Amino acid sequence: MTTETAQDRLLSVRRRIAAADQRRPWLLDGAVVAVVTVLGLSDLGTGQQDGPFGEVIAATDLPRAVVLLLIAGLVLPLWWRRRAPTPAFVAVATVMLVVWVLGVWLDAGASLLIALYSIARYGPLRAVAWAFGATVLGVCAAAFVFLPVAHPVPGVFLLLGTTTAAVALGLAVRTHGAYLAALEDRAARLEIERDQRVRLTAAAERSRVAREMHDIIGHNLAVMIGLADGGAVLAESRQELAAEPLRAIGDTGRQALAELRRLLGVLRDEPRDAELNPQPALADLDALLQRVRAAGLTVTYRTAGDLNALGRGVQLTVYRVVQEALTNTLKHAGTAAAEVTVTVDRDDVRVRVADTGPPPGARRPRDPVEPDETRHGLVGIRERAGLYDGDVTIGPRPGGGWIVDVLLHTRAARAAAEPRLGQA
């Protein structure tokens, strides 16, 4: 647990540093230049100097202006080491070659390792090979040609080791960055795919709802057309003036029915034979609850208000909400106890399905579907509630278990399911 916490803290610090570097990249570049500058200025106060090759010419043996110029040539290119790593390396390597030709060893020469790291980290891969090769040749030339050294072999071994380490570190950080970028890209693509699946699920549910609403509205329109045509025939036989308006009502209804079938028919994704099946209503809840009880779920069913006064569309929505909620209870809670409550007020219909969760010690039933698919029913509940500007609350209960609470805001909640002949 402690190791994981420390790793989390390190990752958090790394993310903060990376975010700060993205906002102000000049801070890191300036810090690198400042550190190497301080390291290089120490050369101005030294006397006899020992480098990795033994005793070399001290920096104080050269004019101060020359030393400052050499230090500037080694330090200033580092400002552009990330934006232009190849030119920065060429500049530093050139100045470093001049330093070696003069037979001087400067601590600011560490900038060559930084430039080599930078080209391995940020530069093109082709440039890494020739930069490393040029550095190796330069080190060998300095040890065996330019610098009057006493121990060339150990010095070359030391410098080649640090050069190889700089390149290896740059390539390792580069690979790690590419790996993290690939992970971020994969996470972004997975998020996009998840959103697409949610949208496809919503579209499929809307298609299903559209088919069901087509059947409901189409049925009511057919009843309205039949009543209008019958009233028109009756009025015409009695030579009443209402015959013509009733014919217009029938024609308008037929036109609306044709448009409804044309617009919503393209949304159906189920076989056309399924349209012949009657849609369930609240009267079918008893049969649904019997099937659920037979599966091992204890269900208590309570109602309040005049359920028979609800329109067919509202009844279908209530039925589907109860069906999906109890299905999820069977999937995730097994033999739990559930309570179904349907309350009809003046303008609202509330559907509440609450379960107690799995019994203590019981094994949680294995979900036979993928994790994303388990949310399809919840998306369907929200889509159906949205048809009636409803409020949906879905989540765990404080005392354990799960609750689905849907409040449908509709003034049609108490409207009769079928038009009455006397009103026609």
UniProtKB/TrEMBL annotation:
Signal peptide: none
EC number of the protein: 2.7.13.3
Catalytic activity: ATP + protein L-histidine = ADP + protein N-phospho-L-histidine
Domain Histidine kinase/HSP90-like ATPase: 314-408
GO molecular function per UniProt: ATP binding; phosphorelay sensor kinase activity; protein dimerization activity
Keywords linked to the UniProt accession: ATP-binding, Kinase, Membrane, Nucleotide-binding, Phosphoprotein, Transferase, Transmembrane, Transmembrane helix, Two-component regulatory system
Residue ranges occupied by any Signal transduction histidine kinase subgroup 3 dimerisation and phosphoacceptor domain in the UniProt entry: 205-270
Annotated spans, Disordered: 354-376
EC top class, as a word: transferase
Pfam families: DUF7134, HATPase_c, HisKA_3
All copies of domain DUF7134, residue ranges: 22-175
Residue ranges crossing the lipid bilayer per the database entry: 25-42, 62-80, 87-115, 127-149, 156-173
InterPro entries: DUF7134 (IPR055558), HATPase_C_sf (IPR036890), HATPase_dom (IPR003594), Sensor_HK_TwoCompSys (IPR050482), Sig_transdc_His_kin_sub3_dim/P (IPR011712)
Bias kind Basic and acidic residues: ranges: 364-376
GO CC field: membrane
Protein name (Swiss-Prot/TrEMBL): histidine kinase
Natural source organism: Phytohabitans rumicis
